[in-house]
Amino acid sequence: MNQMTAEEITEFLKRQKETTKFTFNMVNPDNFMIVISLKNEPEAYTFIEENAEATFELTDANELL
Predict the structure, then answer these.
(1) What pTM value is reported for the model?
(2) Angle ∠(60,2,13) on CA atoms, nearest 5
(3) What's the CA gap between 32 and 11, in Å, rounded?
(4) What order do you get walking across the sheet with 55-61 strand by strand?
């Protein structure tokens, strides 16, 4: 599994086109997992910052990388 920290996912998203939406499994420190969609936009970085202790696993993209 390709798990990323909040810092790693931020750097990953900044390198992507603004139109590409990515689906991630987000796992909180208490092992609670939710599925989220993020793309290269300010709201995503706010969300990531608010969940800085979580890990993120890329599962899908709506465009080819």
Answers:
(1) 0.88
(2) 60
(3) 24
(4) 3-4, 55-61, 22-27, 33-38
What does the block give as tokens for 5?
A: 């920290």
Evaluate whether 22 touches 58 at the Cβ level (below 8 Å). yes
* CB distance 22 to 16 below 8 Å: yes
Give burial (CB, 10 Å; 0-12/13-18/19+) of 20.
Answer: middle
pLDDT digits (tens, 9 = 90+) for 10-55: 999 999 999 999 999 999 999 999 999 999 999 999 999 999 999 9
